[in-house]
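Input.
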Amino acid sequence: MGNIIYDLADNTFNTEYVAETVVNMLKEKYERDFEVVKVGERYGKGLSDEVTLMCTVTGHYECIFKVVYNMVLEKIVYDNFLIRCTCYYVEKEINRLLRSVNSIVRVEILKKNSVNKVYKTLEFLEEFQDECFVATLIVEHKDSNNIEAFLRELNGIYNGIKIQIISYEMREDEYAKFYEDSKNLDYFSLSYVENYEFVSRRIYALEKGSITTY
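Output.
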């Protein structure tokens, strides 16, 4: 029978086989090399027949995306690779502009159905004019004074693209804990972030050359 990936009797699965299967399916679909960085929760109706995996493109380890694999159907039923590639353009620019600031960021796009391929940089800037991105940014408290200059630079680069930044400042020990816990996640929900102790939270809206603070 080969590898048994799903056992109805004891509800277990072969993690290595699932990871290898998912990587091969992703490669066939997107013609890239992938790696699994985390095998996560299982869920489904009674039998927990689906498992989530956090994956990345080989060589681009900061671009984390989610895959849901159904072990009964033996197929990928969901992945957000194209969405995450698009959001990663903004994440990468934020990381570049923050330079030596200790920070971690995840970006979401609100109009997800418009993402249907991996965009090159110039295509990205043209395609997503007037779209809205939401960035959840976690900054170590001692580095928070650099945020205003960073916002001005980011606004100049992405003038025309709406970006809302929710910025949390955390003290060194809490930031380090958050970073280790969260580096393999594809996004940060507000409820998730606020389980950690933070010094302050600020919301910035970048749109058409202006910066608004809430």
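The two ends are 59 Å apart (CA to CA).
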